[in-house]
Design goal:
Layout (H helix, E strand, L loop, with lengths): L4 H13 L2 H8 L3 H15 L4 E4 L2 E4 L1 H25 L7 E7 L4 H15 L3 E7 L2 H10 L4 E6 L6 E16 L12 H5 L5 E2 L4 H9 L14 E2 L2 H9 L5 E4 H5 L8 E5 L6 E9 L5 H13 L7
Parallel strand pairs: 3-4, 3-5, 7-8
Antiparallel strand pairs: 1-2, 5-11, 6-9, 6-10, 6-11
Helix pairs in contact: 1-2, 1-3, 1-4, 2-3, 5-11
Length: 303
């Protein structure tokens, strides 16, 4: 006898919610029904999957392995159902897209009206988060695709190019480095450098432009910003120098701040904006269609 999708879903919901009551609520069934489904799954598979105690629910090692595989099975099944229902009509119905904070405010405003006009049946759900969490959700099936920036580890994922987004130097107004037409990243390394906090891939992209690593520039050294808007204000206040993506500058993120923006005198001082999806996903065609829309909305300076 094989496990059913319902039983696998019950176990995954239990793992996600941490209690039988919350998992049953998420599954829209009674707690005894969910508990019975998981017990039947344990009988089919053999080993215990859940340790039940007063402090809560803890998955056994076997349970964690089953949950990991169940996530992939359930995601592929959802893909199959969506493909069958939307056969011949891509980007119709629900599509869950993740996007990183250093792209969302600058690329989406121009693209979303085009998506609405071109694909009126599309129900787009957007989630803004850091790259590592978005890619984990794409791999597990929690998201259909994500709009992120490379370089980044995309193992298990496919991607398509949207734009090459240049990194530029951001300097306090009147800073000596601002007198040059282009700024060498190594010149900035000797300055007080302000970066986004750990977890933002733009932080690593900026350090790569300087030939530095995260270990050489700990978050405990100097200042760190939680967003591009905060970073711009910190640079404008004279607290240090930084890097900005050109798409953010083109969108006016630095317009009201007292900062000077200069191109970098370096090769490959840029990030690649891409749409990623799970390898083998039936949503590959839709990922490419999304990339076409995002690509068409890019100003020439960004790509």
């Amino acid at each position: 006898m094989l496990p059913t999708l319902r039983q696998l879903r019950y176990l995954k919901l239990l793992a996600d919610n941490g209690s039988f009551s919350r998992a049953a609520e998420a599954a829209h069934v009674t707690q005894p029904t969910l508990s019975a489904g998981i017990q039947e799954l344990e009988k089919i598979l053999g080993p215990a999957l859940v340790d039940r105690n007063r402090s809560g629910v803890i998955l056994t090692a076997a349970g964690e392995e089953v949950v990991a595989r169940a996530g992939s099975i359930l995601a592929q099944t959802e893909d199959l159902v969506r493909e069958a229902r939307g056969a011949g009509e891509p980007l119709s119905g629900r599509f869950r897209l993740g996007v990183i904070p250093t792209i969302a405010p600058f690329l989406l405003p121009a693209a979303l009206p085009v998506l609405r006009a071109r694909y009126p049946k599309l129900r787009l759900f957007l989630r803004e988060d850091l790259t590592h969490r978005l890619l984990a959700d794409v791999r597990s099936g929690g998201l259909d695709a994500a709009l992120v920036a490379l370089p980044y580890d995309t193992s298990g994922l496919d991607h398509v190019h949207v734009a090459d987004d240049e990194l530029v130097a951001a300097l306090p107004e009147g800073h000596p480095l601002g007198r040059a037409e282009r700024v060498a990243p190594k010149r900035m390394e000797s300055e007080e450098m302000i970066l986004l906090e750990d977890g933002h891939c733009l932080r690593d992209h900026a350090l790569m432009a300087c030939g530095m690593t995260s270990s050489r520039h700990s978050r405990d050294e100097g200042f760190a910003a939680t967003s591009l808007a905060t970073l711009v204000q910190m640079v404008g206040s004279g607290l240090g120098v930084s890097f900005l993506p050109a798409m953010a500058v083109d969108a006016g993120v630095a317009a009201a701040a007292q900062i000077t923006v200069r191109p970098l005198d370096a090769d490959h001082a840029s990030r690649e904006v891409v749409v990623v999806w799970r390898s083998g996903s039936t949503r590959a065609q839709e990922g490419r269609l999304l990339a076409q829309v995002f690509r068409a909305g890019q100003p020439e300076a960004a790509g």
